[in-house]
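Memo to structure team: turn this sequence into structure tokens by end of day. - J.P.
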Amino acid sequence: MLAYPLLGIAIFMALWSFTASNINTSLGTFPGPLKVYEQAGNLLKEHQAEKQREAAFYQRQEERNAKKLAADPNAEIRVREFNGRPTFITQIGTSLVTVLYGFVLASAIAIPLGVLIGLSSVAYAAANPIIQILKPVSPLAWLPLVTIVVSAVYVSDDPMFEKSFLTSMITVTLCSLWPTLINTAVGVASIEKDFNNISKVLRLGPIAHVQKIVLPASVPMIFTGLRLSLGIAWMVLIAAEMLAQNPGLGKFVWDEFQNGSSDSLSRIMAAVLVIGFIGFLLDRAMLLCQKWFSWDKSAVLR
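Reply from structure team:
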């Protein structure tokens, strides 16, 4: 079974290598697979070098404070944070944390609201126009509004979260909740009448009806929406980070574009591949969750 995927990757690499060698840009020839692989190794080395600098910084700080305390036990000790520059690896971590927060918040809003809309025709009629208007709005349109609102509302002398994090997270939430909301509503509205009749025979209350009938019967559609939402959240986040210059992979790509060095194209291409690979892993992780939660173990899920 691995032969076909490997064949597809080999064909892609050959096409990429051939095409790249024939594209000349202002920064030189477009990078092929080998050059991108080389830059990916350099990005990893830069991260390791930065971690060594961080370890050396804290070691020097501990030694300096230890000497100060040895000379004067009542001396005031200052502990400073290491302010090194973010590396490609740390930018990946920042983006992953942001997208997971935004996705969880979007799911927490979309699933209960989808259940309500699916159960009530009145709620559906009231919410549907708003959903249809807001659903296609681009993250590039949301981002300025979110940035201004967060700056105006989130004012604190000791903030729990960075404003840049909140801006990216809220933008991700606003753009990614719609597939989960719509699929949940459709799944709930499509429950077979026999299931609802069983609920009536058992005289289940509203909450028990949702817990024992609605949610289990809607799991396939809910997870279809969640997988779509997570993919959209990842795409939106990169665009938001790039446009707003918020920390993350999007900022890394934009900084390399602005840098304009001979290695920039290779580094951007390495980031593009990593972004795609992480998106693939996120989808596979959600698929595993879907298989685990699904009551129909014989269903073919891809």
